[in-house]
């Protein structure tokens, strides 16, 4: 027994040896933990790498908001204070075709349906199940019973395999949906950004006819399917459509599918033309960042000379000259806007209304000026990216040069204002979010 007790006892020399070893053991444990953590980060970094088509653009500095816009910035929350909401069974939607003279409206729902709203009873019903999700929409000039619309994928939404992106028209009388354009000519290849490159202007084609291709002549060698049809406008005679394709790589979609493009600020946006009379399509402009809203202007001899577009994720509005003395030129009408400019609409007096879907965050402004942080941002889940809740409305003069009214809303009554549709009874707000359903209308601040 005594021998066992002596064996269990540790001599002072042995205790000192153990004490000397403990710091080394601790250091090795910490080192192993650090190496393991670095290994986990490295695996995550590789596994979460963004797709190759998301090429980060050079640094882009967004300046201060213009003083004349700040001067018409409404105090408080006039959007929420004057809002009326009805037909609350309508989910989120991208656009509204307002026909007050017929007592009805058509709404392009996120659920893949075009909804019909009775403006007298304030009730809504699913009207037609269209391919994919209808986005921008207009009535055909001269025919109230024909609704034309863009249709595209909505992020993380499954659709039948035979449904395709494109321009469509709906005959309200028969509920028949007919594709107008599903393919476009293969555009000239865009050179990718390289380190040291600077932000450059896009390309507006001076002779659209050079890029035009008849639908009957399209094949897999000279054309491709439209990847993303977001918004459009129609000429006064109903013969020419100008539509935006914000980007055209795999996975192009509305909603969350656009986040990567917004962060990387790629030059993938294009403006296309469809001529219904000759049944042909042409590339109007390319190498822009997320062209979204489209508004034809400057008619001369019955033909449009320029088109306004929102370069949404660059916080700009541009004028692209497509004919006349300035054909092939661009003009920055608005820069450093306080929010993402989305859809463009014109009222009876010619004033322009802009949906400001999301407030510009300080983080995104800083990230565009410091693109080294973007590889990290592109790897984060969408849920971890801070997204402002503030949305808004902007009104401009007919030439888009003078601000008439600007207001922001905290997103409580309407979450994402994608477009602003002026009417006789007030201003309707296209609500892209499912979180604030219904048809939303506010008082016209210009009356």
How would you characterize this protein structure?
With 447 residues, the protein is an alpha+beta fold. It has a single domain (63-442), classed as TolB, C-terminal domain (Neuraminidase). Helix content is 16%, strand content 38%. It has seven helices and 28 strands. It has helices at 2-8, 12-47, 67-71, 78-81, 259-264, 362-369, 374-377; strands at residues 84-86, 93-99, 104-109, 113-118, 123-129, 133-140, 143-152, 166-171, 176-181, 183-185, 203-204, 213-214, 223-225, 232-234, 240-245, 269-275, 280-288, 291-300, 303-311, 316-321, 330-334, 339-346, 352-359, 391-396, 403-409, 417-422, 427-431, 439-442. The strands form seven sheets. Strands 11, 12, 14, 15, 16 and 17 form a six-stranded antiparallel β-sheet that branches. The protein has a four-stranded antiparallel β-sheet with strand order 1-28-27-26. Strands 2-3-4-5 form a four-stranded antiparallel β-sheet, with no helix packed on it. The longest helix has 36 residues, at 12-47. Mean pLDDT is 90; it is low at 1-7.
State the CATH superfamily name: TolB, C-terminal domain
Helix-and-strand structural type: alpha+beta
> With helices defined by DSSP (H or I, 4 residues minimum), what is the helix count?
7
Largest sheet: 6 strands, antiparallel
The low-pLDDT segments are 1-7
Task: Determine the oligomeric state from the structure.
Answer: single chain
- Give the CATH architecture: 6 Propeller
Beta-strand level of the residues, as a percent range?
35-45%
CATH topology: Neuraminidase
Shape: globular
Secondary structure: helix percent: 10-25%
Just give the CATH class: Mainly Beta
Rg over C-alpha atoms, rounded to the nearest angstrom: 27 Å
Number of strands: 28
Number of domain modules = 1
């Amino acid at each position: 027994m005594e021998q066992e007790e002596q064996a269990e006892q540790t001599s002072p020399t042995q205790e000192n040896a153990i004490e000397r070893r403990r710091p080394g053991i601790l250091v090795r444990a910490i080192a192993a933990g650090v190496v393991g953590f670095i290994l986990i980060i490295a695996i995550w970094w590789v596994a979460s790498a963004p797709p190759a088509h998301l090429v980060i653009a050079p640094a882009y500095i967004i300046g201060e908001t213009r003083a004349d816009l700040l001067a018409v910035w409404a105090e408080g929350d006039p959007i929420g204070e004057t809002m009326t909401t009805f037909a609350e069974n309508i989910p989120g939607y991208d656009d509204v075709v307002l026909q007050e003279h017929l007592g009805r409206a058509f709404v392009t729902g996120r659920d893949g349906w075009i909804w019909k709203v009775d403006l007298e009873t304030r009730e809504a019903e699913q009207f037609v199940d269209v391919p994919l999700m209808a986005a921008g929409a207009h009535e055909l000039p001269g025919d109230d019973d024909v609704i034309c619309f863009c249709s595209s994928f909505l992020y993380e939404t499954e659709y039948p395999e035979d449904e395709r992106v494109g321009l469509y028209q709906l005959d309200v009388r028969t509920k028949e949906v007919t594709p107008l354009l599903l393919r476009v000519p293969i555009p000239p290849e865009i050179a990718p950004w390289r380190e040291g490159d600077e932000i450059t202007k896009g390309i507006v084609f001076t002779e659209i006819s050079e890029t035009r291709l008849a639908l009957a002549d399209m094949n897999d060698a000279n054309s491709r399917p439209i990847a993303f049809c977001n918004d459009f406008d129609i000429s006064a005679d109903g013969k020419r459509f100008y539509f935006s394709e914000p980007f055209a790589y795999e996975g192009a979609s509305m909603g969350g599918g656009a986040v990567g493009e917004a962060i990387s600020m790629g030059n993938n946006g294009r403006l296309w033309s469809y001529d219904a009379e000759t049944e042909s399509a042409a590339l109007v402009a390319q190498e822009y960042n997320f062209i979204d809203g489209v508004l034809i202007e400057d008619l001369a001899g019955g033909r449009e000379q320029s088109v306004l577009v929102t370069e949404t994720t660059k916080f700009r509005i541009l004028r692209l000259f497509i004919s006349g003395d300035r054909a092939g030129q661009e003009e920055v009408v608005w820069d450093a806007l306080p929010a993402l400019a989305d859809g463009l609409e014109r009222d009876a007096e010619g004033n322009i209304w802009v949906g400001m879907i999301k407030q510009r965050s300080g983080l995104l402004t800083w990230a565009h000026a410091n693109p080294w942080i973007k590889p990290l941002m592109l790897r984060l889940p969408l849920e971890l990216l801070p997204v402002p809740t503030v949305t808004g409305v902007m009104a401009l003069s007919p030439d888009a040069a003078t601000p008439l009214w600007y207001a922001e809303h905290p997103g409580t009554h309407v979450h994402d204002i994608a477009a602003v549709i002026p009417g006789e009874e007030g201003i309707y707000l296209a609500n892209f979010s499912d979180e604030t359903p219904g048809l939303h209308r506010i008082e016209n601040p210009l009356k």
